[in-house]
Structure formats: C-alpha cells, structure tokens
Amino acid sequence: PPTNAGQAPGPPDGGWGWAVVFGAFISIGFAYAFPKGLAIFFKEIQDFFGTSYSEIAWVSSIMLATTYGAGPISSILVNRYGSRPVVMFGGLLCGIGMVSAAFCTSILQLYICVGFITGFGLALNLQPSVIMIGKYFLKRRPIANGLAMAGSPVMLCTLAPLNQFLFDNFGWRGSFLILGAILLNCCVAGALFRPIGAATASVKTQVTEKGTDALKEEVTGDAVEMSTLTDVPLKDKMEDEEEKDCCEKINQYLDFSLFKHRGFLIYLIGNVLMFLGFFAPIVFLAPYAKHIGIDEYSAAFLLSILAIVDMIARPTTGIIANSKWVRPRIQYFFSFAITFNGTCHLLCPLASGYTGLVIYSIFFGLAFGMVCAMLFETLMDLVGAARFTSAVGLVTIAECCTILLGPPIGGTLIDTFGDYKYMFIKCGAVMVLAGTFLFIMNYYNYHMLAKEEKERKSKEEHPTSVRTENEGRNNWNKETAQNGPELEPLREEQEGLKKEVNGT
Amino acid sequence: MQAGLHESSPESMTSTWTVSWQTQGSPSDHLTLEHTVAVSGPDLTTQEFKQATKENMSNVTFVEYEVLLPGVSGTSVEKNITLDSATRIELSCRLDSKYSHLKSLRVTWKRGNETIRHINKTENSWSIQLMILDNSKLGSYSCVLQGEEEISAVFHLQVPKIEGKEKPIISYEGDTVVMTCKSFDYAPIAWTWYVTNGSEQIAINDSLLADKYVINRISANVTHLKILKVTKEDDGVYWCEAAFELGKSIGKLKLKVLSLMVPLKPFLAIVAEVVIIVTMVFLYEMYSKKKEKRAEYEKEFDQVEQLKSEESNGLENSSARHRKT
Fold first, then answer.
1. Are the Cβ atoms of A184 and B270 closer than 8 angstroms?
2. Which coarse location class applies to the principal site listed for this UniProt protein (chain A) (predicted)?
3. Is residue B111 pLDDT above 90, yes or no?
4. Does the predicted TM-score (pTM) go above 0.80?
5. In terms of domains, do A181 and A293 share one?
6. Residue A188 and which of A52, A94, A167, B307 are 20 to 30 A apart at CA?
C-alpha cells in the first residue's frame, strides 16, 4: 500500500481540535490566574507566620518567575516526550505542591511548595497548551488562540470568589488542600491533548528548505509519522555533520538556531520591551483608584470591569485576526494592539474621577485582551508550528526578567514622585515604543520575506511550478509567502498548488 | 463652668437645614483641625468648617465640636465623638444665621435627665464645656431647642472602638492559630484577652499557660493572641479588651476548630472527579481509534477484493486471448 504521509492533510482545524482548545483554556487559565488568585490568602498567612507583607508577596513572585523561567525546560520536555505526558505531569505537580503547602509550618516551605513546585507545574501546563493549538489548527488558529487565552480572565473571575468562599469555610490550610485537588484538573486538560501527526506533514517543506537543525528537531519531535521516502536522504545529511555532536544534541531539544531567525529576534526584542510596561498598570490600578479617593469596593470593581471586557475581547480578537484581511498582516495588527494599549496608559492621568477610570478600565481591558490573544499567535506565525516549541520556551525565559521588573520599577516611580501618573507615562511610553518598533521591523521583515520568496522561486527549476505560480498570483500570497510553512497548505487551498506540500 | 442666657429671636422655620461637624484628629498636645467651607445645600448635607483649635492645659487636650442644627423637627442629629484620654471638651449647637428669625427659643442641654448649664457662645450658638476625666462622664449629651417645634442634636462621647473579626476564624486540630485585635488611631494602655467558658468570661493568663497561649503586642494598636495546639475545646468566642484612660472597649472574635476530615471530603470528591473524567477521555480515545482501525481495515479489505476481482478478470481476458490466438 502506498505511504499516505506524502498526502497527509494539514492540521484538522476542528473536530477534536475544539476539545484541545477547551483543555488549553483550562491549562492557560490556571497558569495565569492562579498566582493572582492567591492574594486573598496573604493577609491571613502573614498574620499566621508573623511576616511582613513583602515576604508574603515573594510567594507570588517566585511562582510567576518559575512559571515563566521554566519555559525552556518545558519546551525540552515537550520536544522529547510530547505534550500530553508533560501536561499531565504538570497537573500532578501542581496538585502535590498545593497539598504539601497545606501542611507547611514556615514561610520558607511555602516558598518551595507554592512558589517552586506549583509554579513549575504551571509552567509545564502553559507551554504545551499553546504548542498543541499550533499542532491542531492552522486556518482557524487565531480563533483557537483567542478562545484558549480567554481562559485567563474567566479563571480569574471564577477563582477570586471561589478562593474567598474556600477561605471563609476552610481557612487557608483547607483551602490549599482543596485548591490542590482543583489544580489536578489540569490532568484532565492533558488527557484531552491527543497526540497528532499532522504538524510534521505540513512542515515537510520546511525540512527541505531550512536545513539540518530544524530537521533534527522534526526527527525527534513528538508526532512521528515521517514518510520513509524523505527519511533516507536526510539521514545521510545528518551523518555528514557528526562533528557538531554536542550542539546537535542541544539543538535537538531546544532550537538555539532560532536566534538567527530574523522574525524570532524581532518578536523577542519587541516583547521583552513591551512586558516592562504590561503588568504594572493592572497591579497599581486599584491602589491608584484608592489614592484619588475612590472606595475599596468600587476600586475592586474596576478590575472586574477589566476582566469582563478582557474575556470578551480575546475571542473577538481571535475572530478578527482570522479574517482574510487581517491574517496576512497579523504582525501589524499586533503592533497596533500594543500601541493602543500604550496610548491608553498615556491618557490615563487625564482621567478624572470614577467615570474616567471606568472608561480607562474598559479600554485597557480591550487592549489587554487584544495583545494577549495574539501573543502566541504572532510567534507561531513568525517561526512556524515546528520550531514554536523551542521558540516559546526561549521567549518566556527572556520575558521572565522584564515581567518581574515591571511592577517594582513602577512602584519605585510612584514612591519617588509620590504620584501615579509617572508610572502610567512610563508604561505607556514603553509600550508605544515597543509597538512602533514591532511595526517598523515587521514591515522590514515582510519585505525581506517577499524578496527571499521571489529569489527562491526563481532558483527552482520547475517550469510548471513557475507557470502555476504566475497564474493568479495575488498580493496576499506575496506578502505571506515566507511567513512560515504553515501557510503553504493555505495557499494550496487558495490556488490548488500541490508540489511543496508533497515534498520532493 | 459658666452660666449663660439664651436668647430667642424671631425666626420662622421654613427652610431645611444643613448639618456639619468637626472631626477630631489624633490626640496630641497640638490639635489642629482644618476643614474647608462648603456651600450649604437644600438637603441635609455635611459641611465642614475651617477652624483651628489647640490648647494645652496641664496635659489635657481641648477639643471643640459644633453641630449645625437641622431645621426639620423630628429628625435628630447625632455625632459620635471618640475620646481615649482625659479631655476638656466643648460641645456647641448652632443655628444658621439665616434662621435667626425663629421666635421664642428655649435651649436646654441635657445628659439623660440631668440638665447642664450652658453658655451662649454667640447669638445663635449655645455650648457646654465638660471636663472628661473618667468613664462616668462619658455618654450622650443633647441640646434641645424648644420653639414651636423641637429641634435637637445628640453628642455621643465614647471610648475608641476595637475591631475584632466578624467572620469566624477557621483552624484545625493540632494547629496554631493567631487572633488579631486592632484599635484604630488610639493606643490603649493595656490589652486583655478573655475566653468564654459557658456563660462567663475568663481572662487568659499567658504566663500561667505559656505552652498554650502567647499574647503579643505587635504594635501600640495591635495585639495578637496565639493559641498553640488547638483542640476542639478551644472552639468558641474570644474577647479582646482594650483599656483606655476613660474606660474599656471590647472586640469579639469567633474561633472555629475543624478536623482534617472536613476539607478532606471535597478534596477526595474532586480527585475522584478528575480520575473519572481522565479515564473516560482515554476510553473514548481507545474506542475511536478502534473504530478508525476497523474502518481502515474494511477499506483495505475492499481494495484487496477489488484487486482480486481485477486479477481474475485479467486472467480470464488473457486466457480468452490465449484461446483466441
């Protein structure tokens, strides 16, 4: 019987994919919302252990740092074992972490149990979820990303009152025990992440184009449905480069060659800059409201407004980003969202009174949701689904530093000047700068990609392919030509080209 | 104390009044009270006055409180004043000058049934001066303006309130629990903790039961009671009492002691739910894989059948050809 790998379809873009989106919704929701939801217990724990507030706040910081910093480890594990075992192990780790935290007798033990163990478990949840979406979706990927990322605000809105309820009825120890059980639901999400082989088929073109490094990644990738035909010539290539043994091995698990990838570098620099001003406004919104005289409950309500708008904005952004006008230029849309976010912060000091702050919260929620929904989608768009596994790990560890630095820098500004407006101006300026940088660099990137695509096509000596390409070639194709091999099947659908996908 | 006459002036009570009061800052020798004047509205809105008062008389603070009387009779204005140490206090009731056309007003200052002599501070205000040195002088003082209708205002002189906890504190058997009591703004002279045994309150002596109770004064305003090795018997109501120069104030706290079984039940329920759902997902996956395999097998079977029939057709054709030639 003929091998069907050559004609393997692209990612399903539906079917079981929606179950995967639901699983990712839960995983991502816990990963982002859980550290924030823990704040409700801090006052009681602070009294219990007799520590200062900043010592308690370290628990959250360690958790956040571990979740982002363990990104590369997560990527390596996914490259080696696949998403499903990693997520299930992560869920188990979260559960164990919180259950052991329930029996802690010192603040140091809390740092370890809640901070490191649970944080690491959440890291093992976050990365694979995003990776799985890239494996199951291509045409509808922005929508899938938007829906999955909506898990974060939904979980936050659920966890906040739930945590309060648990605390009132079970105290902080009992709450941690029950929260450990609730975190085990990440294992359910992991069970839904059925391994799939579709990704390798759609990136076989990449194998022939991008060289041995990415190729080796494919060989050790989690979905293994390689056609025997393509295997043989490639294995010869591998044997030729034995001298790079150690680097090869590392690159097998974590693709460091990404640092030579133009799109990846642009994304990395832009995002690292953006995160300096991303989270600080949320952290300081309620204190700022109280500072200008608004009562505690109305200040908390501002955050609820933000979360609700965020919840709606994320899937909506996904749908917009998926439309045929935006998808080819999705990087511009991302830059616009970041700049919009920055502008909101710059205008915030002009908001006077509660109504002004409500309007600010609505726009901030909208902008925040837009950026978050496209955060991973744009990375996938730039590097492609195959190298995304390593890319996301490298990006999160770089973002880890600026995420942790952002709020303290904002706090220092507030303390030095005694006024919140400088913090907002700093955050707004940083984000507008990041957005502009991304916009300009992506324009350059699209330009270069189009040029490379033209060169590549002219080098190929397939007269038929040249002819079919000349037929009905439209601007859309030119711009998105090298955005990643994942768009190849898309183009195929558009024009009926089959040569690249089938491989040589 | 000075005696004073009050005057009645012809006024008509047609408009509504505004109420205002000064708030006292933290007790210190130099009391500066500053408030800004706001425009009076047609309804009962609060106003604040710009005033500064301070006086230092042999370690006793002097404070002034003034209330603008409401015009609508029947409604009484109340003001809570918190005092924690010996204070010389002046309470005044004032009638806004635009209502000075009220006729035949008789002003009385009372505490309960006892009348206090007042002075006429100005044309439209009447005040009393009190020396509050102990608990007996605290209470409710009221000024009553008797005209065609009665207008009154009440001042409640109290010790500072203590904040306990409204919701019960949850703890587990064998665990340690820390209970906090806080006093706002005023530092008590001493704190005492009581536990309710049956219907009486028993003071907690932490030196006597040092391995059970630890009382810590974290700061001037905050006290902690730490109970070690909590048992079911420790469940109940606790009181923290703050002693001030002028009296005592208590806060109430409730302790609830649970056994570990209590959170364990929801925990096990959720774990069971997770296990069941994961098993279901895996079973469904195996089932759908089997279905796929069967469908593939049937397809292959059909293909083989087709090949076979083609072969047999071919054989017949070749044999037919063979025969023909």
1. yes
2. membrane
3. no
4. no
5. no
6. A167
For the beta carbon of residue A439, count every other beta carbon within 10 angstroms: 18
| Whether B145 contacts B69, CB under 8 Å | yes
Residue B286 touches partner A, C-beta closer than 8 Å: no
Q: Quick one: pLDDT band at residue A210, thresholds 50, 70, 90?
A: very low
Q: Which of A179, A196, A213 is the C-terminal boundary of a domain? A: A196
Taking alpha carbons only, the member of A503, A280, A272, A282 closest to residue A400 is A272
| A1/B281 Cβ within 8 A | no
Cα separation, B125 vs A264, whole angstroms: 78
What confidence tier does A125 reach under pLDDT thresholds 50, 70, 90? very high
Across the interface, which of B169, B172, B278 has its CB nearest the CB of A187?
B278
Tens of pLDDT, residues B46-90: 333 323 344 444 577 888 888 887 666 667 788 888 888 888 888
Q: Mean pLDDT, chain B, as a whole number?
A: 76
Of A190-199, A257-266, A375-384, B94-103, the least confident: B94-103
In chain B, residues with a C-beta closer than 8 Å to the C-beta of A187 are 274, 278
Q: Which residues of B touch A1 (CB under 8 A)?
A: 300, 303
Query: Which residues of chain B from 150 to 189 reach within 8 Å of chain A, CB to CB?
Result: 167, 169-172, 175-178, 180
Percent share of chain A, pLDDT over 70:
78
A162 and chain B in contact, CB less than 8 A: no
Structural domain boundaries enclosing A417:
254-460
Contact criterion met (CB < 8 Å) for A177 and B264: yes
- A349 lies in a domain? yes
- Between these two residues, B17 and A381, which has the higher pLDDT value? A381
Residues of B in contact with A47 (CB under 8 A): 178, 180, 224
Q: From the CA of B176, how many Å to the nearest CA of chain A?
A: 8
Q: CB–CB of B170 and A1 under 8 A?
A: no
Inter-CA distances, B250 with A252, B133, B160, B223, Å:
68, 20, 10, 12
CA distance, residue A398 to nearest chain B CA (Å)? 34
Within this chain, do residues A103 and A35 fall inside the same structural domain, yes or no?
Answer: yes
Give the whole-angstrom CA distance, residue B258 versus residue B171: 6
Distances (CA, A) of B171 to A96, B20, B256: 22, 46, 6
**Contact criterion met (CB < 8 Å) for A187 and B267:** no
Q: Do B175 and A173 touch (CB under 8 A)?
A: yes
Residue A215 has what pLDDT? 40
The answer to whether B135 and B129 are in contact (CB under 8 A) is no
The token duo for A312 is 């709606």
Same-domain check for residues A277 and A161: no
Confidence of residue B164 (pLDDT cuts 50, 70, 90): confident
Please list, residue by residue across B139-167, b when 16 or more beta carbons sit within 10 angstroms of its beta carbon and e when fewer do: eebbbbbebeeebbbbbebbbbbbbbbee
Do A160 and A287 belong to one domain?
no
Strand B60-68 to B87-94 pairing: parallel
Instruction: Determine, for residues A171 and B170 on separate chains, whether the beta-carbon distance falls below 8 Å.
Output: yes
Residue A85 lies in a domain: yes
Nearest to A184 among B167, B271, B282 (CB): B271
- Rg of chain A over all Cα atoms, to the nearest angstrom: 24
- Same structural domain for residues A191 and A266? no
